[in-house]
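Q&A FORM
Asked by: J.P.
Topic: structure of Cytochrome c554/c'-like protein

PROVIDED:
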Amino acid sequence: MAIINRKFFRNYIMVIMLLGLTTLVFHCKNGTKESEYFNPQVLATHGNGEHFVGSKTCMECHRDIYNAHLNTAHFNSGAIADSSNIKGSFKEGTNILDLNAVEFQMLKNGEYFYQHTKIKNRSTEIPPSKFDIVIGSGVRGQSYLTWDNDELYQLQASYYTPTDSWVNSPGYPTYYDEPRPIRDACLKCHITFAKSVEPSPQGNRFDKSQMIYGIDCERCHGPSAKHVVFHRENPEALEAKFTLKIEGLNRQQRLDLCAQCHSGPRSIVLKGNSFSYFPGEDLNQYSKNVDNSNPDQKLDVHGNQYGLLTSSECFKQSATMDCSTCHDPHRKERGNTDYFNSKCISCHTEGETVCSNTVMDKHIKANSCISCHMPTTPSQAMMVQLDRDSLETSFNIRTHLIAIYNKDMWRD
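REPLIED BY: S.T.
REPLY: Here is the structure written out as tokens.
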């Protein structure tokens, strides 16, 4: 009987120990998860010390907005290159860009993609260049960047959506040219944040581990580490803390959020680099355009929608109109005629403005206000060469100079 009791006691002790060990492991594991939850991974750090944690952290409380934003051109304007987002074809017969003095062949090797270069009438061998980053959502086209250690360059082959073909990248000659260095001013409209590893804004060296691709929530609302941690720790709090409240900004501050990318090249850097500006600050303290002092300077339709909009009578005669009056940056609006018509009508019904176009003209333009008053216009800044025998072709981009145009300006 004593032997049985000793066995029972020993087994009892072992069970208790196993239960204790299991409990310890469980709490250790969950403690780690809890720690990670309240201390989200820092993806990059702004120059002012604020931390980016990525737009996925916004999904917990803003799922509908997050899911809608995934379909916007903003979100898809920059990405790591892979088969899901490179629009150009790598299939035999459609993977060649043939120019006067050089031919480029796009080939896939395993899960990676490469540009192969053959200079005509020369035996020079040029190593293949890897597609590392996709620039552009593909609505009009895409360009591609390649890493050389921590230096970033543009590939000579780009993709042009209207012809579904490879084209010579804008600004490249029809012969082989050395890869073009990519500065932060080039990245700023396609990348939420990039960390430069050299002080000069003319450099093309970046920290690969601190790049946030596409234009996501934190580009306009600011780095969100503090915001996310606070609301995870205080789920009952209804007032947003530690984030930029757009509705609390004045009109110029709201315009500056969009003007970061939509006000021309802003090639005169006054402070820091293209990623130094922080949402809510005065953008003109950081950069400006060469033509800012010349009111008669003709604005190109590519890149300076801000300048065109602020030159419009609609803007001048309104005390509140800004980009978000007509655009919801969280949602894909392209092609939604009814949506944009409603924006125009919301203002122009007040004065009983009546469209003077004929019924036939309205039908031709699909009853779209912007087709007549904001026609697509050839850009003089964005031009591509389709092949060795073609002239340069302009991108047609919708002007944001809202006005009354002649019928010969109507394009879509």
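FOLLOW-UP: The chain has a mean pLDDT of 87.
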